[in-house]
Amino acid sequence: MNNLWFFDNVNLFNLLCPHKFKEYKKCHNFDAYKKSDYIYFEEDAASKVYLIEKGKVKIGYYNEDGTEVVKAILTKGELFGEKAILGEETRNEFAQSVDATTSICPIGVDTMHDLMRDNKTFSLKIYKFLGFRFKKLERRLQLILFKDSKTRFLEFMKELCEEYGHDCEKTGDKIIEHPYTQKDIASLIGTSRSNLNVLMNELKEANIITFNRKEIRLLQKIA
Hints:
The protein is of the alpha+beta class. 37% of the residues lie in helices and 24% in strands. The protein is built from 7 helices and 12 strands. The protein is globular and about 55 Å long. InterPro entries: cNMP-bd_dom, cNMP-bd_dom_sf, Env_Response_Regulators, HTH_CRP, RmlC-like_jellyroll, WH-like_DNA-bd_sf, WH_DNA-bd_sf. GO terms for molecular function: DNA binding; DNA-binding transcription factor activity.
C-alpha cells in the first residue's frame, strides 16, 4: 500500500505551498509555533488550511468531562484543517504544536479553491486524500471506543507499517522508522504512557516486537 498522506511519496508541502507559485509568493508568509502553542481552537473560524513545513502538530478535541481525545499527530509535509475546503465554517477540533519549533504554511480557503479549480488532477488528489483521511480517523476512533489497548496498539502498528515500514533483508523482520514518541503513540491509541510502556514490554517478552526511541521492529506478522 502506498503512503497515501504523501500521494505516492510526494511531500504535500512541496506540492501545495503557495510560496512556490509566483502569483502568491509575495504575500505569503510562514507562521512559527513553540511547543504547546495552539494553531487554532475549537469554535474558531475555519478560513484556512495548513501545511507543516517542519515540526509536529496534534489534532484533537475535548469530551464533555474535559478529557482530551487525540485524533492525529501530523508531521512534516502533511495537511490539516482540511475540512475548511469542504465548507466547514467553524472548527470542531483543535490543532496544537507538539515540537519546540514548528513552522506552518497557512493557505486561505479561497486560494486553495483557486489551485484546485485550475488543475483537475490536483483537485482529484485532494479529494482522494480527504476521503482516506476521514476513513482512517473514523477507524481509529472506533478502535478507541470498542477495542482493548493491546488491539489498538497492534492495529496502530499496521498503520505504521504501511506508512513507515520496510523489510530487513537479513532477518525478514519489519522495521518501522517512525517520527512518534511513546507519549504520541499513547495519545493516538487512547491510553496512558505508563500503560503503553507495560504493553510494549509484554510484547517484547513475547518476542513479538523489539523497540528503541526511533524504531519498532516487528518480529512476527500481525494478524
